[in-house]
Amino acid sequence: MNPKASINILLICLTACTPAAAQSGELSLADCFRIARHKNLAVEQVRRSLQARQYQLKAEQSTYFPKVDLLAGYNYLSQPLEVNLQQVKNGIVEGSSQQSVSTANSVYQQITGNPLPQPVQDGIYNTTKGIINTVYPNYNPALSKQQYFTAALGLRQPIYLGGKLATARDIARAEYESGIVNVELVEKQMDFLLAAAYIRILYFNAVLLSQERIVASMERNERFAISLVNNEIIPPYQRNWATVALTFARSRHENMALEKINAMVELKRLMQLPQDTLLTITDTLHYKQLEAILPPEGFYKGNPTYKAVASKTALAESTVKASRSLSLPNIFGIASLNLYQRDLPITTPPWLVGVEMQWNLFSGFSHQKKVKATKLWVDEAKIAADNTQALLEAGAAVVRNKVTVLQRDMQSLSQARAQAQLTTAQVQERLANQLSSVKDVNDALLMEEEIGKAYYTALFGYLLAAAEYYNILGTPQQITTLLQ
Predict the structure, then answer these.
(1) What residue range is the signal peptide (predicted)?
(2) pTM here?
């Protein structure tokens, strides 16, 4: 299927889930959140990382099972194994000769009760020695061929590893839980960026509508000025003032429209949509009071940023256990089953079982230093968690004050905007009665435009501060309650 067609189908499905969106085709912020959950690459990246950590945890949970290996080997020797008879020749000749003398002496003594005379013993010794020297091989016989092949099954079962396997599982579990928090963190950051981009588009929509009204008023003012010039009521230069003011107003409107296009580009990038995707967002900014400015007690514990830092504490504590287990012995049960052997110089039993132990008695004090290092990592993680808590609490206080300041600014700017609109209407009425000039109308319209833009800028900052407040609480999607 065409990727663009898939995206359009996704947008249709998402907008159909919301009654208002289904009627107007308007893309809401909640729709943006859902699209980003399915399309954003950063979110998909941390999800893949979470899956990898999950498989790693399952792998560590199965490490206590025995390991069965197929062992096979082919060996080719530069020369066959040999018995070095020449090296032991003297010992064999001497030993055999002495043994012959001892045997003859023992038999003679049993018969006669007396030992053999010494000359006879010497004769037996020399005769035996001569015979053995004569028949003793003058070469080293081979014990095997030059090559041999063996195959066997080997089993290795951990019995006691000083807690190393349990610690490895704890580390894998801590990594997995950290991966879950990472997904929450990336999703939260993405939600905040989407909210900021969406609010920015609503700001441009509001300002564009205000500027359109101003441009329409200036066009009427220019037409009225032209009629007055044609009737020789006012000089032409006053009409020129109206034309110049209208030209700059149109330019400001066009520039604001281009800034909205750039904001739409950023919104599509966050949702991982092609830039030629058609999105409809026509809503504007509206003031809605933030219900509760004071954050609840212990709010930071639900913030993924804090949870991401706090998860490192559990991981650091597991590394302490891992470092301590290095000083403990490892005990394995072993077994072997011979499957095949060919041309082996010795005959091995068909199977064997046993127990082996490995215990590092001295490592240059590296194990003790690793334990100290991991304990310091635990302290570091706890300090980082406390610091993150302090930053979040301070951030909540700053945002609370910022919201209060912007609410006051909007109250004063709202009154100023109403007065500016009233003043413009009065000046236009006076112009109709020829009691004011065309330039007076232009000045009033410019003042109305600037005050209106300042009001929407303050409202934009207020909603951004509210989005930041909900982001600190760990619920950035809650900003939708102020945009409905």
Answers:
(1) 1-22
(2) 0.74
